[in-house]
Design goal:
- By secondary structure, the protein is α+β, with helices and mostly antiparallel strands.
- It has one domain (6-139): 2,3-Dihydroxybiphenyl 1,2-Dioxygenase, domain 1 (Roll), CATH 3.10.180.10.
- It has helices at residues 16-25, 72-79, 95-104; strands at residues 6-12, 36-38, 43-51, 57-66, 84-92, 109-115, 121-125, 135-139.
- Bound molecules: cobalt (II) ion (CO).
- Residues 8, 10, 62, 87, 89, 136 line the site of cobalt (II) ion.
Amino acid sequence: MKLGRMNHIGVATPDLDASIAFYRDVMGATDVTEPFILESQQVRVCFVNTPGEEGTVGTQVELLEPTSQDSPVGKWLENKPYGGQHHICYEVPNIHKAKEEFEAMGKRVLGEPRIGAHGTPIFFVHPKDMNGILTEIMETPKEGH
Ligand code: CO
């Protein structure tokens, strides 16, 4: 496994619009992407872009509002109704190689690589195998983000 850039921190919220207002009004965010629905994960999602070096986008906050109570994020919020940190996402150069490497180390990869909110392949690794943190592994986007 070759650790890459921390792409984003996933934050679950029961109210996406209220969370966007929080990041704008309290945290001073000036660059928040337009929310959209990611059907495959049953979430409404947007990104708070933190500034990176020299005009680039730094690590993002991914805000996740469940579109269904029965979805993974919906169930997660049952225990944390105010929301909170849901996962951390790191980039890797090759998603399939990374999956093989995690599995070779006995880590539980949750499902096959699939297209995530950035339009690039992702998978999740079980928090019990990752020091208690649900970890998203994402192939580095080819451009932008
Ligand atoms: Co994510």
